Records
---
Amino acid sequence: MAEFTLHCFAQSGNAYKAALLLELAGADWEPVFVDFFKGGVRDPEFLELNEMGEVPVLEHRDTRLSQSGVILDYLGGLVGSFAPRSAVERREVLRWTFWDNHKLTSYHATWRFLVNFAPKGAVSDDVIAFLEGRARAAMKTLERHLKGRDWIASDQMTTADLSCAGYMFYEDEFPYDWAAEWPSVTAWKERIRALPGWKHPYELMPGHPIGQ
Amino acid sequence: MAEFTLHCFAQSGNAYKAALLLELAGADWEPVFVDFFKGGVRDPEFLELNEMGEVPVLEHRDTRLSQSGVILDYLGGLVGSFAPRSAVERREVLRWTFWDNHKLTSYHATWRFLVNFAPKGAVSDDVIAFLEGRARAAMKTLERHLKGRDWIASDQMTTADLSCAGYMFYEDEFPYDWAAEWPSVTAWKERIRALPGWKHPYELMPGHPIGQ
């Protein structure tokens, strides 16, 4: 059995945040597939594992954690990769990780799900347009922040970058013209993509034909 | 000048999380009013203070923080109130604080804003209904979690309770029949309301007639 077990599925950018950290750090980890699209996160058995009904869930010895922000904080300290180097830096990392959860990932994940995976007509176009507006507002903040910077919360890559990048590699599932609309975000993504061991979420986690 | 300065306004439940901690802990703090309804968080001057364009912002000596989750983590440790007592408990506190930011506060804040404060017709009824559905799903998770428990992340009150309670005292601004629909949440709220020094957000922060 691997040292770290991650309950996840390929389409979850929140799970990808943790999976990518484990992979880039060269950790001994294995994914456990959660069949989200067949209601896997609402099964009583899964709710026993995580009452929040969400992936990722990380298991490591006696520790079981959910919420990508907590998992990143825990793993960063443990494997020594991408962890903040001071209390001040740690607060800046947490600050952008909270912002990501509240503003960037939340709207991107929901918008993308409704456009790409939900049954046609599950929600009205007004809802899609509303979520797109919110997602774009968050992207403007990120683009402004990354202009002239390499990394989000420090002069080196931290878990804040992993958090904010969670949904950014599903490029084709957003209607953005990435390089034209978000040049600084795109350059930052390319820095992450260039890291040794980087993998696309569909290759890194189970549940997508590419990764089979 | 007070030891802690909190940039806030009365209608912000995110700011209330920090304001209530400062007040309950008996800290030396003062609010600075941000005129959100006149675009105060989009002013270039405010964006200098917080590029995320959000309250709360806490200033304490050389430290300036935004994101309620980080401020709660910082203040809890500093004033010694509601802070976790171990690494395990700290992770559980963070876990519920992230969940709150992602699922509970995010949908409640946006839904409440559109229903109570936005111009009529600013968004369609479909958007309101969508946000209500998401908010209610989060409430179900919280209600289930609090059944048979006094506090969210520990056997004592922690900053996770303050985070999740951020919008819960604006009762009249949600269409819930609180006690009937959410009995465990209501009992938990009453435990918070009964704390010495508790104040309603409209009394604790500037910008509402009650607090003038």
---
Amino acid sequence: MAEEQSDGEVTAAFLVIGDEILSGRTKDKNIGFLAEYLTAIGIDLREVRIVPDIREKIVEAVNALRPHYTYVFTSGGIGPTHDDITADSIAAAFGVPIDVDPRARAILEAHYPPGQLTEARLRMARIPQGANLIENKVSKAPGFRIGNVHVMAGVPSIMQAMVDAIVPTLKTGTKILSRSVDAELPESRIALQIGEIQDRFPQTMIGSYPRAQDGRFTTQIVIRSRDETILAEATAAVEAVVRDATNQSA
Amino acid sequence: MAEEQSDGEVTAAFLVIGDEILSGRTKDKNIGFLAEYLTAIGIDLREVRIVPDIREKIVEAVNALRPHYTYVFTSGGIGPTHDDITADSIAAAFGVPIDVDPRARAILEAHYPPGQLTEARLRMARIPQGANLIENKVSKAPGFRIGNVHVMAGVPSIMQAMVDAIVPTLKTGTKILSRSVDAELPESRIALQIGEIQDRFPQTMIGSYPRAQDGRFTTQIVIRSRDETILAEATAAVEAVVRDATNQSA
């Protein structure tokens, strides 16, 4: 789990930009989506930050994250309004100029009826110098990639379409395999034994996830590894622990 | 929106701790809950971070956040298993010792039947020196507060009970009032005018939130201010812009 990019490991951070998430007015749906998607293609999401629509905060977060991970993804703040300051902030973070991009302008011109590409809409064609565009099948106004940073929209349907568009361009890691074991027990009943299994199988990552349902506590144990044989052995060990503890309770 | 604690402003950051959120296996419910709750009581949530169950990452994030905000809240990693390392990490962040706390131990002893307070469960009584306990009405094992950092459980029902327990101890700011205006228009149709209203009313924060529903784009404009009169004036201005633009489209 070290931060170094060891062989086969591809890592990511996700920066969510938007006052509306921090005020609770909008409930974020992009974190769960991206987390699950990256895990499925073998990229480890290692950190998420949510920051407000304030230029210095965006610049600071992007520059804190991009040296440490293979990829950084952002969502939010690339629409046409005064509070959409992500593109300008990313340009500032990279220290490059930003202006209306001819490729982005052409996409918008082709999309809107003649005369409808207003000044506000043209803001969506502002792209930092040196960036590549990310296709937006839903509403056309593109995202962009600069360095290892992928800048996407905040509206979930558009963000998801952009993720689909960029995934073929990403280097993906060795996929992490996982198995889960459900225990009808509170996690404290099996915690010590699960810790021992973790020690015995250092090439696995074992998580213990308690749940409260109808006032009853149950636990899901998730075992993850890049190696299928080790995964199977560790899973069998967890299953044995859960079986024994369950029989003792019965 | 400056970071300084100006008169009446109370700010917060939220640190979510857990591999299961970053892998997408668990969808976070605590961010939306806490964001809405803090807004309601007049505390500005300014930043959220999600980090894995890795000691250095937790220490780094806590120490990065706590000097900058009135309060820091954390969720996750205070259960009985080997991957529950939040309490030890917080102690390390503050540079204080940690051990089984007599008050926390007494709570657990009173809760479990004789002989059931196992070594694993006793881990949940590990509290950094100098911390105060946070009551847990759901499953007893307490959270704690040290300095301006409030450490809570990750299971949403327990986390929510802990928030209820600590809110009476928090300093709260002047409540931010808000009004929203729904526009049956894509945000680009009104973006420039809304930006002008923002300029005219610097004591408001105006957000424009596009939505895609059934292939149609609509917009919600949210106007926020601590001053009720200014809020009413700015809202009326937004309503006039939306009305005019809607009539032009009709």
